[in-house]
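Structure tokens please, single chain.
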Amino acid sequence: MNTKTILAGMLLATLSLPALAQQTGETPRRATIEAQGDSVIIRKGEGDLRIRIYEEQQAAEGEEPQEVEIYEGIYLERSDEQSNAFLDALPFIPKKKKHNAYEPHNSGLFIGFARMTDNFLGFGDSKRFPQDLSRSWEFGFNFLSAYHNFKKNPHWGLNIGASWGYRSFNIDGDVALVKEDGQAVFSAGDAETSYSKSRLRHFFFRIPITVEWQQRVSTRGRLVFFNLGPEIEIRHGVKSFSHINGGKKTRVGKGMYVNPVGVSLLAQAGYGNLGFYLRYNTYSFFQKGKGPDVEPVSFGIAWYW
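Here you go.
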């Protein structure tokens, strides 16, 4: 197939653009065809373009030549073939967002309530851990985020991140969580000692691994998204505090036989850069036989970057 045939096919495709735009209801865009030697270059702005190439077939004597379509291509969008650099995984680094590109949603900044439950996927008050929910909370931020987009499909991807934060459980009533005979137990106040504003707190590193689905509401609109997956939690700095006899805050225990590693089930959903999260720990917060058999759950809001 010679250059003249290619040029003829490209010109036919260009002339067909107004008809195609009328069918789709979109304003046609100008396409420029430039021949450089034996090559043809098509330059076009954003949007879809259908290209058809026809080849003239030799006809029998006395018959008119026929044009046969030998190629049809649809140009959907530009793809960035450059690999992600290390800085792309760090927060606060400006990134060029491409239309219809996959955008991962690991928590940027998050804050929410935290509570203890007696059963996995339970949400009621714990009978083993007296708690004031209104004063039990957590906050944190994500400092590392990476993702894998499945076959360049903008709707599905696998996210992985890392976050650090703080969580505090407020203990309700005249009790405090203390260490006694190799266990973490609740000590009730008596005639000589009273406890108030007791709490158990710890810091954490979390590594969420989630599968995400997302969809743009309009051509240039924001994303609606949902993701779900396991999250590894590494706990440190575990301490128990209380105000004894109305005095200053006093540390009454350290470590408290808490499991240093937890595994949670994390679910997030939202619109644009704002969303909600819910996480359930899958097994006891304390080591077996060394503390109340309770599992933490937290829920709140997040701003994603």
